[in-house]
Amino acid sequence: MSTPSPGRTSGWTFLTNHAHVLLALARDPDARLRDVAESVGITERAAQAIVADLEAAGYLRRERVGRRNHYTINAVAEFRHPTQRHRRIGELIALFEPTSARLTDEEDFVNT
C-alpha cells in the first residue's frame, strides 16, 4: 500500500461533514449556514440538510433570534455508532473546540 506524498491527500478524512458542521456551530452558534458551509467545504443546501439531521437526532437545537438562527448543542447526547455510544458529543467538542460557545446538558436542552 502506498503512502500519499506530502501535500497530496487521498480524498478522505477522519471526521464526517456532520461532525464538521457541529464543530463549526460550536465555534460560532450564531453563524450563518452559508458561512458554515464555506468553512466545511460543502454547499449551503448540504449544510441545511446536515443541520436538519442533527436537530432531528437531538444533537442541536435551532432558535430564531431576530433574522438569524442561534444553535445550542446538546453536550450529553451520545454518539450513534454502537462502538462509541458510551461517549458524549461534548467530549468531541471539547477535543476540537475547547473554548467553544454554548453547550448545554440534556436536562437544560429538553426543558428550554
UniProtKB/TrEMBL annotation:
GO terms for molecular function: DNA-binding transcription factor activity. CDD domains: HTH_ARSR. Residues 17-66 form the HTH marR-type domain. It comes from the Bacteria. SUPFAM superfamilies: Winged helix' DNA-binding domain. This is ArsR family transcriptional regulator. It comes from Sphaerisporangium rufum. The lineage of its organism: Bacteria, Bacillati, Actinomycetota, Actinomycetes, Streptosporangiales.
